[in-house]
Every structure is written in structure tokens, then in C-alpha cells.
Amino acid sequence: MPATPSTSPTSNLGADPGQNQLNPIFARPGEATDFALDRMPQSESLPETAYQIVHDEAMLDGNSRLNLATFVGTWMDSYASKIYAESADKNMIDKDEYPQTAAIETRCWTMIASLWNAPDPAGAIGTSTIGSSEACMLGGLALKRRWQLARRAAGKSTEKPNLILSSAVQVCWEKFCNYWDVEPRYVPISDEHKVLDGFELEKYVDENTIGVVAIMGVTYTGMYEPVAEIAAALDRIQESTGLDIPIHVDGASGGMIAPFLQPDLVWDFRLERVASISTSAHKYGLVYPGLGWVVWRTVDDLPKELVFDVTYLGGHMPSFALNFSRPGAQVLLQYYLFLRLGWDGYYKVQKASQDVAVFLATEIGKMPAFQLWNDGTDIPVFAWQLTQGYTDKWNLYHLSERLRLKGWLIPAYPMPDNLTDMVVQRVVVRNGLSRNLAESLLADIVEAVAYLDALESPMPTEGLVTSFTH
Description:
Elements: E1 19-21, E2 34-36, H1 47-59, H2 78-87, H3 99-115, E3 125-129, H4 132-153, E4 162-166, H5 171-179, E5 183-187, E6 209-215, H6 227-241, E7 247-250, H7 258-261, E8 274-280, E9 292-296, E10 308-312, E11 315-319, H8 329-366, E12 370-372, E13 381-386, H9 396-404, E14 412-414, E15 423-428, H10 435-453
Parallel strand pairs: 4-5, 4-6, 6-7, 7-8
Antiparallel strand pairs: 1-2, 3-9, 8-9, 10-11, 12-13, 13-15, 14-15
Family: Belongs to the group II decarboxylase family.
Region (Disordered): 1-23
Organism: Microbacterium rhizomatis
């Protein structure tokens, strides 16, 4: 839009920083050129003007494809974008108005139940969620309610339930325990036991234990927790104590990796002790945020008391969710991808990501400055630490800052309890990070390390903060 002759390109210089100014080149005669940042404007503006301001501000976020800190998908093809635009107005909860979207939701979780080797996918039960956090919350609620019902039937107290977790668990489980009055019992990880693996599990469980959470792809490092070993430990505990403790598998990432890349790994409903599994569809399910899935082995594993019969807009429907109204577009996107890729396509996409992760991990592991924590052969995620004694001039926080100058977001952060003195960096390889981009990243890491190594004195450490939010 051309500027009017009377509009000066410098007319907004020195303006109030509490205003959002429109560049004069976009202004039309008689149109407002600045907007307050903290209150609704009094009058309307043209759609082009509002779009330009939102577009320009969002542009400051940077390139999401270079954000290697997040597990959340940042790329879908043009047909997916078209479906997204066409179905953004669908409310997932309104199954009477959008019955076909509801039917597609059922198809999707039934396909996923089969992917996770449910003994009878048609006899399983599942639901879509707004993300893996809600899916975990629902899985945890079902564990708690099943425990409560069993305790009441036996005439026992339902006070002080507890849940067994790795100290490296995702923060949504801390929220679950806080919000629903469940005592979290954290099993600490260590150099010897890098994940929850069943070691000394008997020290943590008792008659008030509602379940154990096993993670397929620990957020800190990407490693799988050995669900079969955890189940075997719980089998031994049941033999000696009579305690029958179920497992919820948090497959936020690995739930959509393991079926394709490690199909022989037994972690899912092939283990009878696994009552429920959740995943994040907007991670390695390859869908834009936000979408998650949770599936129970059988209908009986989801207490019927938690399912509501809801009358909404003239129809009756079952509802088991923390959110009510929510978008249905992502469910359609998941179905699109299942049809578009099939098993072979998902294998190719996930294998390509794993190949890039293993390439990067191998090359970074060759550098004297670094020691790998894992190698990216579980989910396409790996972490490394600074080699002990390598340098006193810089640390991984400084390296993270140097890489940010090139646009890369690669977090540095301390490990959880018992290992808080250890700082690592982590790369998440997602669909869209090509081998060419990975080679560019590797070149930038080599350049950054060379720069830091050449310093004549140590880098300042004041103000350094973790850039990790899991």
C-alpha cells in the first residue's frame, strides 16, 4: 500500500514505546498508524493493517524450523494446510453437529490401538486430547479411580495415593500429582541407571501406589525407559506382596516412533500390566499442535464413572476430557496423515529423522569438547555434555548463546535431582530437519567451539540461565 505524500517515513521515530506503530508505507489516508499495546483500540482498522501488524510481530519469533529445542512439529505439507483452513471452525466436542469428524476420531484411536498391539483394538477405548499433557492427566485419573474403586470394594482407606515416577519425568506429571492430590514418588536417575528401569522399585511401591509411569522417550535425553523390565519388576513385587500395580506408558514421543523403527521392542499392550498409553500427535505423530491421544487396553481399564453423558446442542455424547470445546481440525489432519503416509510412509519419515539424529550425534561425539549422553537411536533425540576438564573458558550455556546468533535454538540445562551438577545440551530432530540443514548446524557448532576455544580469558557466567522448558 503506497504512503500518502504527507506521510513522513520518520514520523514515528521517538514515539511512545507503549504503542504499536504502523510503518507509514502501509498506511492509508485517514487511517490510524499506532495502537496501544495493552488495551483494545477504540475504532476499527482495515484487515490489511491488522494483518500487517500481527504478521510483523510474529516474524520476530524467528524460524521455527531451526528450533531444535522443541518436540512439537513445525512442518506439514500444503494439503494439510488446506484441510486445516477448511476445518478450523469445527468444534470437536459437538459430535451431533460434526458426526463425521467424531467418526474419524474413533477411526484414528482404533488405528493407534492396533499400532500399539492392543489385544482387541475394537474392544479398546480411547480419545483425542488437546495434547499429550491432557492425555497423561486422563491416564493418571483412570489409574487413581481404579485404585479408589478397588480400595473401597475391599473396605480400605482411599487416602494418600501415590504414583511412581522417574526423576526425569515430564512436568505434566508433576502437575497431575499436584492438581489431583497424588503423592509423587520419584526414582532418581544416575550415571548407572540413566532411566527408570525397575531397579529397587520395591522400595517405592506400597498398597497406596496407583501405578507406575514409564516414559518412551525421556524429555531430557530422548532415551526409552525399558517398560518390559519395569513390568517384570512389578511382577516380582506382586509375587512377594500381592500388590497388582498397573503401568501407564507416557509415549509422548516414542509412541509414534517405536512401532515403526523398533517394532520388535516390547513396550506396549503386549505387556498385560500396561493399562493405558498416551502420545502427542503434534510431536512424532507429525500433526500441527495441539493434539494428543490416549488409549486404554480394554473398556474395563477406563472406569465408567469418569465418562460423562453430555447433552450439547441437541445431542447426547460421551465425554471424557479436561477440555470441552476444542478444535477438530487436528483430528482430521491426523487422519489425513494416516491415509497419506500409511505404515511405510511413517517408517520412512521417522527413519529419515533418526538417520539425521544418529549422523549429528556421531559427528558431535567425535569432537574432543563433548561426551555423548545417548546417540539418538531411540527417538531421534540426543544429548551431550562438556568433556570433563576440557576447558575453563566456556560452558554449554555459552555455546547455546553462540548458536542462537545463527538462528539455532539448542537448549542447555541441568539434569534432574542427583545429577543437577551435570549440564547437557539436547537436539530434537523432527520432520523438516534435512541432512543439509544438519550439516549446516554441524558447521556452526564447529565454528562456535573454535571461537570459544580461542578466547584468551573465561567467558562471564553472570546472567546465564537455562533455556530448557520441558
